[in-house]
Design goal:
Blueprint: H1 5-17, H2 33-52, H3 61-64, H4 67-87, H5 93-119, H6 123-150, E1 173-175, E2 178-180, H7 188-209, H8 212-227, H9 231-246, H10 250-270, H11 274-283, H12 289-307, H13 329-362, H14 364-383, H15 393-413, H16 420-424
Helix pairs in contact: 1-2, 1-6, 2-5, 4-5, 4-13, 5-15, 6-7, 6-8, 7-8, 7-9, 7-14, 9-10, 9-14, 12-13, 13-14, 13-15, 14-15
Length: about 475
């Protein structure tokens, strides 16, 4: 089987490099190239499972014994059931079309996460995907910096032949005295949240592998979370910083505190007025028209939820044109998928964070990466309460890449990273350790020559102890 570098690298490139405003003709808002590729990956995995008889060899456990994959499958099934329930009652053409787009988007995200979980089977695959994500994030941040400092929308130059919407760009907006960048995303809020969510991953990679460009990725992500000039980006940056602070030792906490102080002082010195503007956004939040509008909408939201309290009115059926603008994804989910759907959403991400925490307790490079990814996941999920996050494809694509990586790390910690030979020729006797990509794995994990991967267990006194 071919390594997943091409498919996943292509997905990251399509997601971060092509402006989110550009879609394939005939597919509407769900027709971004990255979304369509995610659907293709899901179909590819499904056909492969059918062709191979639901998996072979050690790869079989990737689907059946991974808590993150199971939680993802259950949550996606709930969304499908809610979509089906919505179509059981009369829907307007607008609501039906919106529901179909939402379902395709959810299936695409599931396909991306499952593909990462299923195909990322070595430490080299993991670090390569992380580098792809950071390079894509740097590109997005670079476009955003041009928008912030020059007031010029550089994404206008990224017109891809064959895509439509390439001339329908939003202008670079302003807040206070500053331009509000959006990079290649749809909105400055999405830009700030994605940049902030990349900080833990960039910090982990810069510390573990070094390299000037990786430190530049960290600095650009942290800075762009502030340059978005929005509450959501700063909130997510604070949340990921708090998670990292709580989960680190005292030396790392001092380093984090020093780094945060340097970021704030440098931003204030290089961009006069930025820190004060961000402070005023929070100090005067209760007087902000958008905040007051959210408060005024609460009674209407509760009324709509009461109509279909348990299963909701149908996934994707709530539209701005027919109802109202919520700017709150949690409230929107409460209306569309009901109390049970929201509970499954919470359970899904609690499972993801729990799996990452279990990996962190085992220590080693897998544990530290899982911890960084969990900080990013928590930050993004918190942002769901500040705007309608599911609509934004770069944000949700980044989130599900992180979910897939945590699932892949779980597979690695449980000894289910399998050699290519064992997968291409099950039972052929070619499953020797030389076929496995062991770059980056600790020596304690190496088995005697010729031992099967399923029999691989490190010493119990090793800090790299695998999960039982």
């Amino acid at each position: 089987m071919r390594r997943p570098a091409f498919e996943l690298g292509l997905f990251v490139a399509l997601m971060f490099v092509i402006p989110a405003t550009q879609v394939v003709p005939g597919f509407g808002a769900v027709g971004t190239p990255a979304t369509l590729l995610g659907l293709g990956l899901l179909v590819m995995l499904g056909l492969e499972r059918l062709w191979s008889g639901h998996g072979v060899g050690a790869a079989r456990g990737v689907w059946s014994r991974n808590p993150v994959v199971i939680a993802l499958a259950v949550y996606t099934a709930v969304l499908i059931a809610s979509w089906s329930f919505g179509h059981l009652r009369p829907l307007t053409p607008l609501a039906a079309s919106s529901a179909d787009r939402a379902l395709l988007g959810a299936l695409s995200l599931a396909g991306v996460a499952l593909y990462v979980a299923d195909r990322v089977r070595s430490w080299e695959n993991v670090t390569r995907l992380v580098d792809f994500i950071l390079l894509g994030g740097m590109f997005m941040c670079g476009v955003g910096m041009v928008q912030f400092f020059a007031g010029y929308d550089a994404s206008r130059l990224l017109v891809i032949p064959g895509l439509q919407g390439g001339v329908q760009f939003q202008a670079v907006g302003t807040r206070s005295i500053f331009n509000r960048p959006f990079g290649t995303t749809l909105h400055p809020i999405e830009f700030g949240v994605v940049a902030a969510a990349l900080v833990p991953l960039a910090l982990w990679r810069a510390r573990s592998a070094g390299g000037v460009w990786r430190w530049c990725a960290l600095v650009s992500a942290a800075l762009c979370a502030l340059l978005a000039v929005g509450r959501s980006g700063v909130l997510v940056l604070g949340v990921v910083g708090l998670v990292l602070f709580i989960g680190s030792n005292w030396r790392e906490r001092l380093n984090l505190s020093a780094g945060a102080a340097v970021l704030v002082v440098a931003a204030g010195a290089l961009i006069p007025g930025l820190v004060g503007t961000l402070r005023s956004l929070f100090a005067g939040a209760t007087n902000d028209p958008s905040y007051q509008a959210r408060v005024e909408r609460v009674p209407e939201v509760l009324r709509l939820m009461a109509e279909y309290p348990w299963f909701g009115r149908g996934f994707g059926t709530f539209t701005i044109e027919e109802y109202l603008l919520l700017d709150n994804e949690i409230q929107k989910m409460g209306i569309e998928i009901g109390v049970i759907g929201v509970a499954m959403f919470i359970a899904f991400f609690v499972t993801v964070v729990w799996a990452a925490s279990v990996l962190k307790q085992r220590g080693g490079p897998l544990g530290s990466l899982a911890f960084a990814l969990s900080a990013s996941v928590i930050g993004i999920v918190v942002s769901y309460y500040t705007f309608d996050a599911f609509f934004y494809r770069i944000l949700t694509g980044t989130l599900y890449l992180f979910v897939g990586l945590i699932a892949a790390l779980w597979n690695g910690a449980t000894g289910r990273w399998v050699p290519p030979a064992a997968e291409s020729a099950p039972g052929s006797g070619r499953e020797d350790w030389e076929a496995v990509d062991i770059d980056g794995l600790p020596p304690e994990w190496l088995p005697p020559r010729g031992e099967r991967v399923e029999q691989l267990h490190p010493p119990r006194n090793s800090r790299f102890t695998m999960l039982p």
